[in-house]
């Protein structure tokens, strides 16, 4: 730090207090990063490894249990702190199960220090052969990778795309990539669930749970964050400071929205939350005298009572966080989120630019700090485009490649036919939506009554849905329609 300041002093201009403070802050941040890197550095557990292997020779399960009882497992993100006892136990139990699996597939080890790259390949291949979910496999790989880093083998298991490439080279096709990007919105409004109607029912069962849920809807909070929220302390006038219950222990600020009606609702929610929190001597929205786990259990129990589950209303409490993300995305980008019904129909460079800027902001408000994570809530433009193209192709195949469709069109005297509406846009449609078709006869005259009736009946039988049939008499192509080939 002294050297950096001296370099500035050697110049012709003496540094200002602000410049000195900036240098000191940069130095402190650098020191913090170095300390974090040291905590998570390769070989941090080598001394513990040596002791456990000496204590329990050729007993890998006992070695693993002792390793995690003695080694200080640090949190990967957030403030410098050891992980919880529960996380430590999860790591130990999972790795001990891996030792059993290695023995079952005849790749067992006598000492845990022997575990390496070849064992990782065999385990991943075994998990894939058992049909385990991609998210499950990814969690196991993360635990195994971190353990190998502790014992000095940080390069044993690659990350990201390198992992997939490496596994392919080893002949392993296990599904090791999570698919977290939704193609259907989990937001309440997109699933036709009325928040205020549900809140009215929930207040009859538990007023505090209803308040927690409404805070989640207004500010996009996680359930744990709403339970531990101190509304009075969090109110910073133009923004809400979320400190407790955040992922990784990282505090964040959530701005009040600039749209007047929404901002007024947020303010109303926060003021009412303060009144509820006064009933708790800690000033939080949790139940008085209850532990966090008890408050969480109470929250989920009350939500189930009023149907806030996938099986009943088709949504969960976390869907309100999705709704907040989509609302903020729309406000910031000027367009609907890719996962919603109001998503842009044409993706231009301007749309992509607006998408990225909105996701960066929404990511910060949600407490993730990586725009890609926001895709879990908003959906993805490339995925949206891909899905729409596939849906259009599916309907083209069901028409152009359908001999019965072609026969019905020709028998009615139709020369040209277009697919229109949501079908032509490649949007998702349910079974109740009418299949919209526009037809044009050879004579450019309206279809005769019987011909029109018979065509609609035949098409309804083919596609098991109502048909919206209209006619086009002018030259050229109807607006926003997709022309189908008449063979």
TrEMBL record:
<dbReference type="InterPro" id="IPR024457">
    <property type="entry name" value="Putative_integrase_N"/>
</dbReference>
<dbReference type="InterPro" id="IPR024456">
    <property type="entry name" value="Integrase_catalytic_putative"/>
</dbReference>
<dbReference type="Pfam" id="PF12835">
    <property type="entry name" value="Integrase_1"/>
</dbReference>
<feature type="domain" description="Core-binding (CB)">
    <location>
        <begin position="58"/>
        <end position="152"/>
    </location>
</feature>
<keyword id="KW-0229">DNA integration</keyword>
<keyword id="KW-0238">DNA-binding</keyword>
<dbReference type="Pfam" id="PF12834">
    <property type="entry name" value="Phage_int_SAM_2"/>
</dbReference>
<keyword id="KW-0233">DNA recombination</keyword>
<dbReference type="InterPro" id="IPR010998">
    <property type="entry name" value="Integrase_recombinase_N"/>
</dbReference>
<dbReference type="InterPro" id="IPR044068">
    <property type="entry name" value="CB"/>
</dbReference>
<dbReference type="InterPro" id="IPR011010">
    <property type="entry name" value="DNA_brk_join_enz"/>
</dbReference>
<protein>
    <submittedName>
        <fullName>Integrase domain-containing protein</fullName>
    </submittedName>
</protein>
<dbReference type="InterPro" id="IPR013762">
    <property type="entry name" value="Integrase-like_cat_sf"/>
</dbReference>
